[in-house]
Amino acid sequence: MKKRSFFAPIRQGGILRWSTACILAGGMAGLTGCERKYVATAQDEKMAQLQSKLEALDAQKSKLLNGEVANNFNLPGVGYYHAEARDFFEHPYGHQQDGRWFANGKWQDQAVAEATVAASRPTPEALKKVEAALDREQQLLASQGTSTPGTTANNSSHGSGFGSALMMYWLLAGNRGSYNPGLGFQRAGSQVDGWQRGVEDQRRSVSAHAAANPGYSRMVAQSHSSGTPVKAGQSVRGGFGSSSRSSSGT
């Protein structure tokens, strides 16, 4: 009698039989090649935070270069932008606290509709805040030895400093027709190319981490769909052939 191959169901029955075969194979081989659960590590959380900041940088670049800021955009070191007031504040637009809502620098008794507020150009006074923050960011980068890329072994460890500095510079550059920037902006001009290279180094760090940890991209996709940030200890289901190298303790 001719011996029937174990893989015959795959050829004859398609994907449903492949699933069955995979489960059977897993029973014999410890579920090596079937669906596994990936658990986020502390490094996943760190890289996801960096990736989120880089995505925000990409999303806002053209608008900032045009001198505009989207309502409720958080510019690190400056604050949340309220487009109607054309200024930055400590609290987000629509922030709720003790039954009141914060908008345009004032507390209100009724909720505000964020969707109706369009991007705008900051006032000269608001741009002064941006330039002061840019000057502080330059000093911080210099103190960390990261004013130019390549001066540390891992630029990603310094968060989005390069990206923050670039966004401030772009916004000031986009408003030169109505605002005359000072020495902080002029000093930044000689650093811009280095900051851009630093951002690209950060992108490569995220890409390398994603390539080495197949479950990371699935974790980020789940974060995007749910609207919740990646946190160490969270889990996501993988696909056939996924790795569980980072899922210790499950």
Concise overview:
With 250 residues, this protein is mainly α.
Give unreliable regions as ranges: 18-33, 148-159, 239-250
Give the DSSP E fraction (strand runs of 2 or more residues).
Answer: 5-15%
Secondary-structure-based class equals: mainly alpha
Distance between the termini: 44 Å
Gross morphology is flat
Global mean pLDDT: 81
Number of helices: 8
Spatial order of the strands forming the largest sheet: 2-3-4
Count every beta strand, where a strand is a DSSP E run of 2 or more residues.
8
Gyration radius, in Å = 25 Å
Note the run of SSEs as H and E: HHEHEEEEEEHHHHHE
Helix content: 40-55%
Largest sheet: 3 strands, antiparallel
What do you see in this structure?
This protein has 250 residues and is mainly alpha-helical. Helices cover 48% and strands 10% of the residues. The chain has 8 helices and 8 strands; from the N terminus they run ααβαββββββαααααβ. A 3-stranded antiparallel beta sheet has the order 2-3-4. The protein has a 3-stranded antiparallel beta sheet with strand order 5-6-7, with no helix packed on it. A hairpin with a 2-residue loop joins strand 6 and strand 7. The two termini are 44 Å apart.
